[in-house]
Amino acid sequence: MENEKELKELVRQKYSEIALQDKETNETSCCGSGCCSTEVHNIMNDDYSGLAGYNPDADLALGCGMPTQFAKIKKGDVVIDLGSGAGNDCFVARAETGETGKVIGIDFTEAMINKARYNAETLGFNNVEFRFGDIEHMPVTANIGDVVVSNCVLNLVPNKSAVLKDIYRVLKPGGHFSISDVVLVGNLPDQLKNKAEMYAGCVSGAIQKDVYLELIKLNGFEDITLQKQKVITIPDDILSRYLTADELTNFKNGGMGIFSITVYAQKPLTKAPCCAPGCCD
Question: What CA–CA distance (Å, rounded) separates 161 from 219?
Fold first, then answer.
C-alpha cells in the first residue's frame, strides 16, 4: 500500500468529496468513502438524533459510534474533537459542556472545516471553534483539554501511536478520552488490506483490537475501558469488488471480525515514573 504521506492525501481528497455529499449518500457507503452498496442499510454509523445538541446539517453519517454519549463531559469542560468533520460531535459535546465550556474541533480537510464553521455560525455558537490541522500535531496548547473525543478517525491515520502521543500532550493531568474506532479480530485478506479505497472507507486502515488497546497503554494512559463494541458487517456487493466467490466464503467463515469499539482512557494525574520510550515526552 502507499506510504503514509500518500495515504493521508488520499483521505484528504476523499473527505473533501464527502463534505459535498448528502447524508443519504454517505450512510450507505464505507464511512462515506463512496464505495456505495446496493443494500440499503447503514454499515457503520449510529443514530445521533436522540442526543441533545444534535443538528442534522452537521451529521454526514461518517462515524462508527457515539463517543460523546460515553465521554463523561461536565459543565465547563474543554472538549477536543479529532477529525471533527461538519461538527456533529462538537455540537453534541457543547450541549454537555454548556456555555461555560469550550469545544475545539480539529480537521485536516478544508472543505470540512468550512462546512463546520458555517454550521456553528448558523447555530450562533460562540464557544465552538474549528481549527485546521493534523491530529498528529494538533494546533492546541499542551495540558488544555478535559476530554478528547473522536469518531471513526484514528483508523484513517497510518501512525496511530503519534496521534495517541498528541492526545496525551493536549489533555490535562487527569483528563480522559472516549474514542470510537474500527478494529479487527483475525487477519484481513490482502485484497482488502491493499486497496486504497477501502482504506478511505475505514476498513483496511483498521488494526487488531488487542494491538489498538496495547498502543493506548504504551502511550501512558490508564483506566482503559471498553465502553461499547458492535459487529460491523460489510455487504457482499462491496466485498465482491475485491474478493472472488471462494475468497468471500473463506472471509466469512474464517473467524475474522470487524468491530466498532468505543474506548475510554485517562491521562494520569501525575507522570508515571517509568513508561514506554517516547510516551512521556
Answer: 7
d(CA 89, CA 122): 16
Domain-located, residue 281? no
Structural domain contains residue 124: yes
* pLDDT at residue 38 is higher than 60: no
pLDDT at 77 over 90: yes
3-state secondary structure of 103: strand
Q: What is the model's pLDDT at position 6?
A: 63
Mean pLDDT over residues 46-53, rounded? 86
Q: How far is CA 12 from CA 25, 29, 195, 200, 254, in A?
A: 18, 17, 16, 9, 33
Nearest residue to 31 (alpha-carbon basis) of 11, 3, 6, 52:
11
Task: For residues 252 and 258, give the distance between their C-alpha atoms in angstroms, rounded to a whole number.
Answer: 11
Given this model, what pLDDT does residue 1 score? Answer: 44
Return the number of other C-beta atoms located less than 10 Å from residue 104's C-beta. 24
Predicted pLDDT of residue 198: 58
Beta-carbon contacts of 205 under 8 Å, excluding residues fewer than 6 positions away, are 7, 155, 156, 157, 158, 182, 199
pLDDT, tens digit (0-9, with 9 covering 90-100), for 205-216: 788 899 999 999
Distance of CA 122 to the CA centre of its chain: 25
CATH number at residue 171: 3.40.50.150
Secondary structure letter of residue 65 according to DSSP: S
